[in-house]
Every structure is written in structure tokens, then in C-alpha cells.
Amino acid sequence: MGATRLCFLLFCLFLVSVSSLRKLKDIHDLKNITYARSAPRHGLQLLFWFAQKVVTVDQSNILILDSNFDPSRGDFGFHHYSNREVILPSLSSWQSYYSVGNLKSPGAKALPAYVQKYYRNTNVPERNMDRLIISVKQNKPNKILGVFITAYDLHKNDFNYENTYEIDPALLLQIGDPYNCTVDESNIPRNTEDTEYDRCLEFLKEMGYSSDDCKHSHISRRKKRSPYLQCNAYEGVKLEIKATTGGFAKLLWEMPAKIMENSKYVYIEICQNTRSSETNEVHTEVRKQLNIYEPSGVIDTSVSTNDGLQPRLRLYPSLFDFQFTNPYIWYGPEFDGANKVIPARIKGFDASLQLCAEDGKASARLYIKKTFSDWKNVLFYSWVGFYTSSQDQNNGYYTYSYVVKFEKMADGNDNYDIYQYKSKLAIAPGVQIRFLKDKSSDNVLIKTEPWKNGK
């Protein structure tokens, strides 16, 4: 009897602790906690991205996800969270938790470079310990019931209740307001991703985020037995891979002039990873190695665009280092085969369409919810057209395929099967695919966003 009473009391104490989970209501509250305040932590970057790009707040103060977004599909690396550590309130049977922020996930390639930055160039455990968790209704996955941030306790390999907070919608509104950040008053054109990166830097600065611990000299503090530093970051280095008009990889780079001055030899390799790579993982294949003589530039290569392409900067301070030691390596972001665009919902069906690049060609991916079991009968006459421009008429396609002829892929999940068709159309800016319900060219259910070079 005493043991039963003790268990009951412990259970009551647990319920009190969960119900008293601290809610961060505004920027001031966020500033007053120490959560993810220095590199290589990425929790604040994750929260900034979520507030800027994924969620909106309606007039009733309800959080709404982007209309195309489905966490159960694995968008941006979201996956089901079981609340095993019981750090969050219990949910009813018709509600679910989904977590994002595990940068090992292949879907995480779609996250902005500023979220992944220190993960790629760090090999300490703190680089991947932060998560953002949402709760949703299973029948209305775009309506968010709650938002939480948390982090692993690295000693226990579990999420830590003491480092878990609920995020009030008002705080997300504040973070999402672009006017909180310094406005660039120059007339220099900047693409959307660069502007978002600048706003994120302003946000991190306001939060007191420090990257000083990750500013190590590649000459004086290199590890003796490994080419990889425990934590390194050149704030001014920018490496990108984009698609040219012929479906090949375009390499763009930018780095502080002092890097060139302090290095005898500078190379950029374009590597092909088969999955989201660890910083100490040997790449699958070097597709191209380029000698670099200028601190910035653009080169069109002969490498076909593929998911997982990654530029890697290799620096040799001296001839001795070049011949006898390992180089200092800076990792750029992996190329996302879907150009960081999530699948578009097909109106009226539990299915979505996504434009992807594979071997330099435009491919269509069809996401079918597993509950839509008779989709081949329902969509027997449906087809996907490939277009060189969003201005093309529906019957002016480059090529097409009936969806029932798409090939099933192996990387589906518990909720979705994925089918793909690879065309012979080179992936290039402006390319678009469209889903048409029947043999007619008039009944278009969805058009994907045209392929852009600025993603």
C-alpha cells in the first residue's frame, strides 16, 4: 500500500513538473535564458527559420503551417517524436508530436545554410543537440497546437527537461517580423537567401549568440592526427552549387582575402555524397577538383547536378603541408535535389508533387499517402507534363508520363510512398512540372514552383 501511494505521489509531482514547463512569451524571455547561445549550437537558427519561413499566426492567435507543408511526409527532416523522455505534456490519441533539427537526416539538406553551418564544419557533440518540436492534430496537420524547443542531455542521450521551453505564438510573430532586423539601404541587389541570412545574423546578435569559440586559425591550431578541427568557422566563406542551363553544376565561392594570402595552395572539390555526410566521413567520390586563384568567382562545371553534391574548400598553408600533411577543409552545403522546395499538394487527393534534379535531368516525384490505397485506379489517366518555362501552354510540354508508370522508390516512410519519373529535360532555371487530372490538357490540378537558381 505504501509503495502504491509513493508511486502515485511521484506521478503527481511529474504532472506538476510537465504542466509547469516554462513558456517564452516574447524576445525578452528568450534573451533571459541560456539556450543555444553559442556555436556550434543551432537551436536559435532553427527557431528563426521556423518563424520566418514555415509558420504564420492567424487572427485567433492560432499557428498555421504553410499550406503545402506536411510534417508526416518528412519535409525538412521532420519526423514523429514519441515523447519517450516525457518532457512534454501527454497528447490525446488524435494528436502527434513532430521534431525537426536532426541535421543527420537527409531531409535536413532543405534547411537553410545558416542552420547547418556549424554542423558541417564541426565534429563536437553540441553541433546537433538542438530540436524544435510541434504538436498537431492528425486530421489537420497544418494547425499547430504547440511549439517547443529542447536539447539533448549529452551525458544521458535523452532530451533534457531543464532545457525545454514552450514558445508562445507572440514570440514567433516577433521573430518573424523582418522589421526587427537592420534594413540594407544600399542599392545592391541581393537574393532572398542572402537577405534571410543577414536577418538571421541580426537576430543572433540581438540574442547575444557567440561564434568566437569556432574561430580557430587553420595554421596554428590544426589537430595533429586529423584534417578536421573540433570547431572551425570562417564567417566570410561562402560555397554554393547551383544548376546551370544545361543541367550541370555551377560553383560559386567567396572568401576573405586573408585566406588566400595565408595559403600556398587553394582547391575546391565537388564531391558526391550518398547521404547527409558527417564531417569526418570520407566522401563517396570527387567529381571535380579546381585550383582557386581568386577570393571569389563563378565556374560552370561539367558535373551533372545531383542530390548530395558538396563543395569542399581545401587549404594548404605551405608546400610542406601540401606534400606531407592533411589540409584544412571547409565544407559547403550539400546540394538539395529538390532545390529546397517541399512537395506541392495535389488538390482533392492525398498526394503531392515535387520537381527534382537527378543526373542533371528534371525528375518528378509523386508522394502518395498510404491511406490512398486505390490511387492507381483513381489516377489511371492522370499525367505529369515537363515544361521548359512556366509560360508554356499546357499542351506545350517537353515530355510527359502517366503517373501509373512512375517507378516506386525505396525511401518512403510510414505515411507516404514515393514514385518517380526521370525525364530527358535538363534541369535549369524556369523548368516546371504540372499534374493534369485526365487526358485533357485543361484540367491542371497543380503546378510546381519553377526551378530557381537562388534557392
Structural account:
- The protein has 455 residues and is α+β, with helices and mostly antiparallel strands.
- It has 3 domains: 21-207, no CATH class; 233-331, Immunoglobulin-like, CATH 2.60.40; 344-447, Immunoglobulin-like (Sandwich), CATH 2.60.40.
- The protein contains 9 helices and 25 strands.
- It has helices at 2-19, 27-31, 43-54, 113-120, 169-176, 192-207, 257-261, 319-324, 375-378, and strands at residues 23-24, 55-57, 63-65, 79-81, 95-100, 130-137, 140-153, 158-159, 165-167, 238-243, 248-254, 265-272, 285-291, 296-304, 309-316, 328-331, 344-345, 351-358, 361-369, 383-387, 399-402, 407-408, 416-426, 432-436, 444-447.
- The strands form 5 sheets. Strands 1, 2, 3, 4, 5, 6, 7, 8 and 9 form a 9-stranded mixed β-sheet that branches. A 5-stranded antiparallel β-sheet has the order 17-18-19-23-22, with no helix packed on it. It has a 4-stranded antiparallel β-sheet with strand order 13-12-15-16.
- Strand 10 (238-243) and strand 11 form a beta hairpin.
- Helix 3 (43-54) crosses helix 5 (169-176).
- The longest helix has 18 residues, at 2-19.
- It starts with a helix and ends in an 8-residue tail after the last strand.
